[in-house]
Amino acid sequence: MKNIIIGTAGHVDHGKTALIKALTGIETDRIKEEKKRGITIELGFAYLDLPDGEKAGIIDVPGHEKFVKNMLAGAGGIDLALLVVAADEGFMPQTREHLGILSLLNISEGIIVVTKKDMVDEDWLEIVCDEVRQEVQGTFLENAQIIPVSSYTGEGIEQLRQAIFTMIDQKTQIKNLDVPFRIPVDRIFSVEGFGTVITGTLIEGTMKVGDPVTVYPSRIESRIRNLQVHSQDVQEAYAGQRVAVNLAGLKKTDLNKGDVIAVPDSMHTTMMIDIHLTVLKDCDREIRNATRLHLYHGARDILCKIVLLDRDSVGAGESCYAQLRLEEEIAVKTGDRFVLRFYSPVETIGGGVILDSNPFKHKRNDAAVLESLKLKEGGSDREKISAALRDYSARFETLDFLQIQTGIPKEQFDQQINKLIKDKVAFRVSDNVVIHTDYLNRLKDSAVKLLESYHKENPLREGMKKDEFRNKLIKYEDISVVDKITDSLVNRKVLKYVNNCVALADFEVQQDNNQQEIENAFLQGGFSPESPDQIAARFPKVKNFKQVLESLVNTGKLVRVEEKILLHADYYNKALTLAKEHVDQNGQITLAEMRDLMGASRKFAVAVLEYWDKRGITKKVGDARTFK
Asked: How large is the greatest C-alpha to C-alpha distance in the chain, in angstroms?
């Protein structure tokens, strides 16, 4: 389906509004000041009936230099431009600026219309047409038709109309309807009995009455109560149409010109964007690093600071990578076009394309950053996704986030992700989180370094406790993601699990020279061993007694039945065997009977029985216990 937006461009008072009225019969000057002053201040809208019964929307943009920001608000959705030049004045400063803006916004189709031909003779008209042809050399209009017309007499209007029909039929592109919809808001008003209405160009996707929407960047939620296209109620609207949207539950004050109405969770809001900037060839001022500028995106105008990433200044006709640091939050997508103008005096500098809609804050002259931006500008889908994975793996951003970030349609994005995983370029850590294997390898190196240090300081311990390892390797709230990464390193024989610990795969607990003597001291104690402190006092030269003790517990040679009571494994197992034999014969065992079987004091029998209770080995039945 071809839904076309035609836009006028040109100097003030060159007859853009009159031309639209001659083409469509619709008057686009709609406010008193416009009527009084005879110039267009705000955007005006009309439609042109096409031969197939469809309608093309027409945007009448202001020509006066003071209202270029309003021109920019409407220019972003234009498919076909009518560059209007008055025969009695020729090419003028705003004609040149508007042409530059159309080029910066990547508008590639158009017709040059020389208006007011009834006000000049044929010789002068020929001179003006030659001048116009010279002025548009090197632009998207250098081979465009030049059609002289008179909106007053109607001469040339039918020829122009037919030229428009032909261009729409042959050259304009079909819009993408299979992506989440969005509309930059260029007008907001209230209608009695209906509430708040916004208008704008539906630049992508399909929207329906009843659809939920989010207002960006405020993230206020609403739903579509009613839709109109060309003043007619519709149930659906499609990319490329001018739409009026009645939003449920919102006041006019809840919205601002330049907001974006879009599918919930389909856009990022940001205070920084990475860009590729092209400066207009006729820009007579140099842009220096850290200059304060106006950014125009969609229908939004905000202030920003430009950070040039590979130079100190950029001049006429030059291009470079830069980061814009914004003074207000904005909703953008990768691949969107923008225009920059100087802060004062406000003159158009250039524009370009957004390469990253939610970047990190960059240092200047960073080769890795510049290489990444080069890939984002001209790389394949695979390269763009791979670059995004490198950038965002450390934040464990979701696939939904990355798909929005790259601007690649979901179906193609999912296909490329699966190929990257298959080719071991990416690694899936959860259903919606995938990381680059470069980052996985960095984590491997960090894990090895972490455990090498730990093993050196704790040679008698089996390894680092899992919880401690998780917290020190990655500070991330989803434990399952960290465990999946650890599992992968275990599968690669880099790490190993030992009980509830993590260790290097080739690590073995080192035997201490005093370990056997300390073990023997507990063995000699039988069912009534001395406390750890008492045994430690017998080995005053052993400075790492606690680690030796922990190693004996971790290797199963000692069993800590209570904080200060440790039994040698031989005696612990003997106590368990004696108790089970007693229960087999008598059906239960009491504390006194356990004490007698052990030949120890009540303290040791209590510790053993309560240790079994806590681990679910025994259960109390009155004053006695049975085995589960």
From this structure: 128
Mean pLDDT of 447-471: 92
pLDDT at position 38: 36
Domain boundaries, the chain: 4-170, 182-262, 269-368, 379-510, 513-627
Residue matched to tokens 């006019």: 252
- Cα gap 72→61, rounded to integer Å: 8
CATH 3.30.300.30 assigned to domain 269-368? The reply is no
> Would you list the DSSP string of 493-511?
TSEEEETTEEEETT--PPP
Domains 4-170 and 379-510 share a fold: no
pLDDT-derived band at 214, boundaries 50, 70, 90: very high
Would you call 291 helix, strand, or coil by DSSP? coil
> What is the CATH code for 379-510?
1.10.10.10
Name which CATH class applies to 4-170: alpha beta
Give the span between the Cα atoms of 620 and 628, in whole angstroms: 10
Q: Which residue has the tokens 């490198």?
A: 390
Mean pLDDT of 475-481: 86
Cβ neighbours, 10 Å, residue 584: 9
**pLDDT tens-digit readout, 112-143:** 999 999 999 999 999 999 999 999 999 999 99
